[in-house]
Amino acid sequence: MSTETSSKYGRLHKRVKVAIGRSKVSKNNVETLHRKGVERNERYRVRTVKADNADNSGRRGMKSKAGDEQIERVSSDRKRKRVYANRDSGEEGVFGNKTSSRKVLSKAAESEDKDGFVKDKRRTKGGFHDSGKFSGGDSLTGGRRSNENELIGGKDKMGFRTKAKAVYNVKNVERVESGGRKSVTIGRRSNEKELLDRRDGTNLRTTGKATYNSENVGLDDSESGMLNRGTKSKSNFVKQSHSNRKKFTAEVLSKSTKKFLLDKSSADDSVISDDRPKRRKRIRIDPHDLTNKRLDDRIASNDNTAEKKEDLEKNKDVQVSMNAKFRATKPSPSILSFVEENLLGRRREIEFRRAGYNIELSVPLDNIPNSTNSERERIEETVFRNKLTFFAAAKISSSLPPAELPEIAFAGRSNVGKSSLLNALTRQWGVVRTSDKPGLTQTLNFFKLGPKLCLVDLPGYGFAYAKEEVKEAWEELAKEYVSTRVGLRRVCLLIDTKWGMNPRDHELVDLMERSKTKYQIVLTKTDTVFPIDVARRAMQIEESLKAKKSAVQPLMMVSSKTGAGIRSLRTALATVARFAKI
Ligand SMILES: Nc1nc2c(ncn2[C@@H]2O[C@H](COP(=O)(O)OP(=O)(O)OP(=O)(O)O)[C@@H](O)[C@H]2O)c(=O)[nH]1
Ligand SMILES: [Mg+2]
């Protein structure tokens, strides 16, 4: 304080004590303090020298006058704490450990801390024998105690790393002690406890102890290598850690797994005891003694199995007979020649090439790139060169559009290829939606093909991804349509060449027979079977429908994929449009 200030306040003659913190000490004062050799971290207060104490209040032999202001160090407990806090914060900066538990530390602990830090340092420099010594002690407890001491001291420096080590080492213990399952469990448990402790944050010492202990026990080569890189002590440490492991295993197995092993053995015993009664005793049964229950049972069961076997054999016979029948079918020469001419059935690419078709094109047999102009014109003259346009859909009979044009309907079970055939016939792919998932077409869809013809895509029957009631509704509507529709000129009943006709197909045939609706069988997906089987299927169906009056001959065979038989079908259907009269 300057002399001007002192004269201003001097007349109060009061003892002025201004407690000021470090921040409040002015720069000049701090410099003064430094000159006086006072430490920076201490607290100070400014004291005005009284007149009676004027001579004696000076410090270090310096005399003071009355009214002089002196700055003196305040000694209190806070000072000491602050010192520790400062040091801790410094360590935090180094180790990044922001543990809130430092208040727990006493001064004694602090001194231990110093010791521990020294030990740690020594260890990391290659003198890890210390930890080896204590961990390699005769008992696990001993190791734990010595560890405790170290841990308490090395908490702040080791705290963070110790956690990681503990986890790592538990794994290590598991690996090393693969023979002793219980030891692994124990290691895990101790760690779990330790983790819980940590989470609670209640007892740092216990936590640290457990952590360090597990580290000690499970120290592995890699870690020792990490700590003692390039030192002689590595080999020693490895040996010691191995011995530690052995001892630990022995210890844990002998003490901790005792109960487990006992339990296990008892469990095993129980298993054995359970197994024993399960063993069937051989009982000699007199086969002629019908009063014997066991024999009765066996007879009954044998009877059941015999019945089942019989049923299976019958079914097999039916299947075999059906297949055999199909294989035995001899197609007529006309069908065989038709199949060959139209390259129906599964064919090799070379056959298409030899016949002059370009297999690079989609639906190669209907693209006719090598055809003459007259052929092309003949196709284009037909109604199928017209544009296909969707104009109505019906879910119920009342929503059916008025029958203004002659109609050709495409019926059959789900996924048989109805929609695909419409596209193939008109060569307008994508107008009618198709899917490999049965049940895509769920309404009666009406398509105009020019001014002369209407094509109707019916929903399929049989298996479809739809509710039973809905499927029944489709079937009813389809049946109603084919049996009552005025403008309906022909129904193409599509049958999958591979599977032939099923009962529902026969049902529809009967219905159309009754309603005198003209229908033509069209075998689809002929490219999925051999040509001979296409011919056989055609022959088989023709024979079964011989007596049917409404069936239009000939039976058609097509493949929407290859285009085989499509032209023939066009020709056959074009006549409907040409001669149709509504
Ligand atoms: N290999 C082969 N697959 C075909 C043929 N025709 C159709 N497919 C396939 O069979 C599946 C069903 O075809 P769709 O035309 O949708 O059958 P759909 O009868 O209309 O089926 P729904 O509408 O469910 O009644 C599709 O994955 C087609 O690609 C064919 O001639 N050969
Ligand atoms: Mg469809």
UniProtKB/TrEMBL annotation:
Residues 203-216 have a biased composition (Polar residues). Residues 32-53, 65-77, 109-119 have a biased composition (Basic and acidic residues). It comes from the Eukaryota. Pfam families: MMR_HSR1 (PF01926). Gene3D superfamilies: P-loop containing nucleotide triphosphate hydrolases. Its cofactor is Mg(2+). PROSITE patterns: G_ENGB (PS51706). CDD domains: YihA_EngB. Residues 28-153, 198-245 are annotated as: Disordered. Keywords: GTP-binding, Magnesium, Metal-binding, Nucleotide-binding. Residues 404-579 form the EngB-type G domain. InterPro entries: G_ENGB_dom, GTP-bd, GTP-bd_ribosome_bio_YsxC, P-loop_NTPase, Small_GTP-bd. One of its GO terms (molecular function) is metal ion binding. Belongs to the TRAFAC class TrmE-Era-EngA-EngB-Septin-like GTPase superfamily. EngB GTPase family. HAMAP family: GTPase_EngB (MF_00321). This is EngB-type G domain-containing protein.
